[in-house]
């Protein structure tokens, strides 16, 4: 891993934190943007921020600028936001590539408490939830802005019962509000209600009232109350 560390650090300095690609993995590492704290010395909280829409570079810029850059700088977080391969999404067949990126980030940075926080907006929320359902033990928290999957069963929700979860959705965004309410109710029955569930009255799919300050207020609380261990 010294080679990967050296390459990443050098490229970050040379490009002022433009997206990075691996040149050593058999499958090319996903491009990503780094925001907030960009050095590689010492522990820090790390957020994997998954973009909405087609999850292109433009959508990465949107999620970084709107939700994470300013607060990450102020609070000392490192934010990693991946770009989906051309014409594809990060979910489904590409979820293993996102997990490879998580491996790479964990090897490059000293992640606080050894677990990355994951958040996603819209399609990014779907991806974040898919990651958390696949490997819940790897993540420090899950934030959906919004995010959902249809027909999540009790066994799937059971796998999330030790994970701090924040959920955000527009009150007029019925197509996402209804399944997110059902998910919250299911988690509550299992003894792990969402730590935060904000419904923005009168707002749509990407509520303007949902700011980076609100997101990071919850994320900071998760640093103080890490994922639960053992039986509830």
Describe the structure.
The structure is a single chain. This protein is an alpha/beta fold. It has a single domain (2-224), classed as Rossmann fold (3-Layer(aba) Sandwich). Helices cover 40% and strands 18% of the residues. The chain contains 7 helices and 9 strands. The strands form 2 sheets. A 7-stranded mixed sheet has the order 1-4-3-6-7-8-9, sandwiched between helices. Strands 2-5 form a two-stranded parallel sheet. The relative contact order is 0.13.
Topology diagram in text:
Blueprint: H1 2-15, E1 32-36, E2 43-44, E3 46-50, H2 57-75, E4 78-82, H3 95-108, E5 110-111, E6 116-120, H4 123-134, E7 139-144, H5 154-158, E8 165-170, H6 174-189, E9 196-200, H7 212-224
Parallel strand pairs: 2-5, 3-4, 3-6, 6-7, 7-8, 8-9
Antiparallel strand pairs: 1-4
Helix pairs in contact: 2-7
Which features does this protein show?
232 residues, Rossmann fold, seven-stranded mixed sheet, 7 helices, 18% strand, disordered C terminus
Largest sheet: 7 strands, mixed
What gross morphology would you assign? Answer: globular
Question: Whole-number average pLDDT?
Answer: 86
Q: CATH homologous superfamily, by name?
A: Alpha/Beta hydrolase fold, catalytic domain
Counted up, domains total: 1
CATH class membership: Alpha Beta
User: If you compute it from the alpha carbons, what radius of gyration comes out, rounded to the nearest whole angstrom?
Assistant: 17 Å
Determine the number of helices (DSSP H or I, runs of at least 4 residues): 7
Give the spatial strand order of the biggest sheet: 1-4-3-6-7-8-9
User: What's the CATH architecture name?
Assistant: 3-Layer(aba) Sandwich
- Helix fraction by DSSP (H/I, runs of at least 4): 40-55%
Distance between the termini: 38 Å
Count of β-strands: 9
Structural class: alpha/beta
Under CATH, the topology is which?
A: Rossmann fold
